[in-house]
Specification:
Blueprint lengths: L1 E5 L8 H14 L4 E5 L5 H8 L8 E3 L15 E5 L6 H10 L2 E6 L3 H16 L1 H4 L4 E6 L7 H11 L5 E4 L4 H7 L14 H15 L5
Parallel strand pairs: 1-4, 1-5, 2-3, 2-4, 5-6, 6-7
Length: 211
């Protein structure tokens, strides 16, 4: 089983969007997947309540930071959505469970500075230093024509981490989320450009974690 943690202490960078679509990808592939939500607002779990029962199932995994539990036996994948300001006990628990960490990042100076500090903090974590956790970065709401996108490109070029891909700024994610849906729950023709952007991300996800 692979546990994927989506984390960035900066709020509004697209963590829940990334988490729900990750879970939707695995569910659409016919795999047994659960979605955990460490945020007190429980946005990801609220999204699950909107999800039509006719779609591929995504289970709820309740993770209490005070008394953490392992995911249900037999799961193939678990995705953990995390809150803004992630640090201390919640960060430690997330990393203790994680096989892979995806850090979403938007092309703004404030997001870049907050994420740079977070990545430096991640690098100091014991689980990361031992090489047991893989980390990747995903650019969120990126318009390649803007100056801020150029700034983001320059920043990620200096990271010693893989940049898994860049997801465009589109209303598709907003409209689908309002109905408990993901990119993989609608006709491909409707979201073809977005699915293309996800391809390198899912290829990284499908790689088995380091032993």
């Amino acid at each position: 089983m692979t546990v994927i943690v989506v984390a960035n202490p900066k709020g509004g960078v697209g963590k829940s969007t990334l988490s729900t679509n990750l879970a939707g990808y695995f569910a659409a592939a016919g795999e047994w997947v659960a979605l955990a939500d460490l945020d007190k607002q429980q946005s990801a779990h609220a999204w699950l309540e909107l999800r039509p029962a006719t779609l591929p199932a995504i289970e709820v995994w309740e993770v209490d930071p005070e008394t953490p539990t392992k995911p249900p036996k037999g799961l193939e994948h678990a995705v953990i959505d995390t809150p803004a300001g992630l640090h201390g006990n919640r960060l430690g628990i997330a990393l203790e469970l994680a096989d892979k960490v995806i850090v979403p990042l938007q092309p703004s100076l404030f997001d870049i500075l907050a994420t740079q500090e977070f990545l430096e903090r991640l690098a100091k974590e014991k689980a990361v230093r031992k090489g047991g956790i893989e980390i990747g970065v995903v650019g969120m709401r990126v318009d390649a024509r803007t100056r801020s996108a150029e700034q983001l490109h320059r920043f990620v070029e200096g990271l010693e981490l893989p940049v898994l891909g860049y997801l465009r700024d589109t209303q598709n994610y907003v409209q689908l989320a309002a109905h408990g849906l993901t990119l993989w729950d609608v006709a491909k023709s409707r979201v073809e450009k977005d699915l293309e952007q996800w391809q390198p991300i899912v290829e990284w996800l499908e790689r088995k974690p380091k032993a």
